[in-house]
Write a structure and sequence with these properties.
Helices cover 47% and strands 17% of the residues. By secondary structure, the chain is α+β, with helices and mostly antiparallel strands.
Length: 202
């Protein structure tokens, strides 16, 4: 995993060179994406192993949710640009009861991992169109705040078999996805007492 990080950084720098052709730039983007995918797959496998042996648990701390959303935006904007997708990350700020608070108590690393996995999969499954992540406060009490994250994208298929088998109403717990990390996202959502729902639109 550590050996691949310099390759990712080098290809990102080479993409910005002005003396390379469009084909060479596409090849660099492809190499970068493959290296990132390998790094992610190794990370997913390692984290699932920790979950299986009970060494992974919830570490709830104060989280800057606005800052986290900004990090997600920066993390994926380049990948969306290379595919010429309309990409936006936003959160409710001017809707009174639905405004997303800046500070919340949660496991920030696991929340960011969930959003990163789902956005990464969405980008992989989108060749053209739009990709957006929006956060809204659904409810709030003196003890807790319920935040809803809506991820919308124009996927390649009207119905996604892998997503349905992992997150759908008839999900199959025996389906394990190591390539995209969807199984890890499902486990972390459960650990954070969250829910996920799929909706397909024409």
């Amino acid at each position: 995993q550590e050996a691949l990080n310099p390759v990712v950084k080098t290809t990102l720098l080479m993409e910005k060179a002005e003396n390379i052709s469009d084909n060479q730039k596409r090849d660099l983007v492809g190499a970068n994406n493959k290296c990132r995918s390998l790094i992610d797959m190794m990370s997913y496998r390692s984290e699932l192993t920790h979950l299986a042996d009970g060494s992974e648990n919830i570490k709830s701390t104060q989280c800057d949710l606005h800052g986290l959303m900004g990090n997600i935006d920066r993390q994926f904007s380049h990948r969306a640009d290379t595919k010429k997708l309309f990409f936006a990350v936003s959160f409710a700020q001017y809707q009174a009861a639905h405004n997303v608070p800046k500070l919340v108590e949660t496991d920030e690393q696991k929340l960011q991992k969930i959003l990163s996995i789902l956005l990464g999969y969405a980008i992989e499954r989108t060749d053209k169109g739009r990709l957006g992540l929006h956060a809204t406060r659904k409810s709030s009490t003196t003890d807790s705040t319920n935040i809803a994250f809506e991820l919308a994208y124009t996927g390649k298929e009207n119905a996604d078999r892998l997503l349905s088998s992992i997150f759908g109403s008839e999900k199959n717990e025996s389906v394990v996805d190591m390539r995209y990390g969807l199984t890890l996202a499902r486990r972390y959502i459960s650990m954070l007492d969250g829910e996920i729902h799929l909706e397909y639109r024409d």
